[in-house]
Fold this sequence. Notes:
Blueprint: H1 2-7, H2 9-17, H3 25-33, H4 35-38, E1 57-67, E2 72-82, E3 85-92, H5 105-120, E4 127-132, E5 137-142, H6 145-164, H7 183-186, H8 188-194, E6 219-223, E7 228-233, E8 236-241, E9 244-250, E10 254-260, E11 264-265, H9 267-275, E12 280-283, E13 289-293, H10 301-312, H11 314-339, H12 345-358, H13 364-380, H14 408-431, H15 449-455, H16 459-472, E14 481-484, E15 487-490, H17 492-507, E16 509-511, E17 518-520, H18 521-536
Parallel strand pairs: 3-4, 6-10, 7-11, 10-12
Antiparallel strand pairs: 1-2, 2-3, 4-5, 7-8, 8-9, 12-13, 14-15, 16-17
Helix pairs in contact: 5-6, 11-12, 11-13, 11-16, 12-13, 14-15, 14-16, 14-17, 14-18, 16-17
Amino acid sequence: MLNEFVYCPRLFYLEYVQGEFVDSSDTVEGRFKHRRVEKEGGALPPAEGEEKGEEAKIHAKSVLLSGDKCGLIAKMDLIEGEGKKLTPVDYKRGKTPSVPGKVWPADLVQICAQAMILRENGYECGEGVVYYSESKERVTVPIDDGLVERTGAQAKEARECAASGKIPVPLIDSPKCPRCSLVGICLPDEVTALGTESSYGTGGTEDVRRLYPARDDAIPFYVQEQRATITKQGEELVVKCVGDVIARGRLMEISSVAVFGNPQITTQAVHELCRRDIPICHFSHGGWFYGITHGMGHKNIELRRKQYAVAEDKSRAIFLARWIVQGKVANCRTMLRRNARDASEVALKELAGWIETATNAKSSDELFGIEGSAGRIYFMHFRDMLKQEQSEFQFDFQTRNRRPPKDPVNAMLSFVYAMLTKDVTVTLLAVGFDPYLGFYHVPKYGRPALALDMMEEFRPIISDSVVIGMINNGEVASSDFVSRGGSCTMTPDGRKKVIRAFERRLDSLVTHPMFGYTVSYRRILEVQARLLGRYLSGEIKEYPPFCTR
């Protein structure tokens, strides 16, 4: 962590204080190249050993030592020497700087810290060695008083940074950021842009780089066969039904597991999913999202404390809730403007008025009234967005209804809203939030209030868009629905079609209206959650709702 602090104080804070860590190709390669020195081997006699052992040659791997005076602990890759005269050797995956015989500043402090620990334990240590595997070069580092003093000062600064409770500012336009495994968590360019008045609210800036992948490597794994059993075999999840394998999924490519109804899952599979922080989302047979199983949870208690503090402060909570409602109504208006046949200018004008009204709302009740009024206008014209020439039957949508839905359109809407709730809940848990305490929706037992807050701006542009697209493209038929007693539900085959369309939508790329780069909707969910965290920590001035153009 001392190495990380010298390299980037913000990276140190994210890892050491907030418990964030994500693998990248560099970290995986680094562990692979460390494999020989990770395994403990060789003996390290105590400094005050017997006379006959003092001159013995020492070659000890993976040695854990600490120093009480310097306040440091280190797991040393390799210790070489004879008797009391020892040299720590630190292995690095990269290559040496362009200047011959030099080491990187962060590596210099790290090897010095190891030497300080060895000295405090009674050994003599006049030099250290940094081995760069990519250039296959050993660089000797003299441990002089100036380096020791500088290392001690850096350690003191790192402790003060950790205790401050304030995350360091991001590096600005730094070449270190693109290869950093935590760049998607740090969001250096986005935080810098939103934290300065000159660039905030300009609708995009050329200076914001997309430093993380546009799409996620992992995707949800859905199981709705009622006789199925989910098991773990090696690095895969295997779904069996009456002894036959009906599906497989590699664990490294799974972001969550969604179970509908009563499929069984083995203890071994649950343990492995918890170990990998892959949540299991539980749905009723009809698609009602009612529970989640996950591991120990995120370590970032600092974020949750700030979340609780803002939620208890009604003035700050309503300040945030206004943006949530504004974002939702703005996206509803965009959907009508884009998709409705002969979009009603009166409706568009009224929705624009409700956006403006929301900026001055004084309470959650007032905001719920504004959202309800805007919602009635939106759903009054929802059928204008349905082009049913490709459908075998007409979707008779009059108004939004639920619990239970009374027609196919509402059945589809309820289902995709449940899917979106699941994905936002999983995202919030991964970021470190408590999904059950929101700023707009009132906490209620078993209801993920913060997930409902966060998904509001995405309901029209993700969920509603899926339903509209499936109807307009003729992807659903009358056989995909079952109606009885005035209610309507979807068949398993119908749900499969909606799930495929929903996943396509999340995986589709869109240009970010504020930052200007292209990214998937699934990735945007995470970006928005992290920006919410940056707002709660005071790094950015406002939470920017995602409003598509």
